Fold this protein.
Amino acid sequence: MSAEIPAEAFEFLLARAGLKLTEEQKAELKTVYAGIAAMAERVREPRGYMAEPAHIYDFGEEDLA
C-alpha cells in the first residue's frame, strides 16, 4: 500500500464525501492516509472469533495463537 495518495484521487474522495476542508486540514489528513488505507485493507480480510470477543466465550488454541 502506497503511503501517498495522488492529489486528484484525494480531491475526488473529499468531494465524494462532501467534505470542504482548508488546506491545513487537507495536509493533516494526508499525513494519516497510509494508516487509514492499511486499516481499510485489514477490515476486508476474513477474521476469526477474536474479532468480536464480547460475543464469544469459548476460544480454541488456534484462536489464542
Remarks:
- Helices lie at 7-17, 23-31, 33-43, 61-64.
- Residues 7-17 form the longest helix (11 residues).
- The CA atoms of residues 21 and 29 lie 10 Å apart.
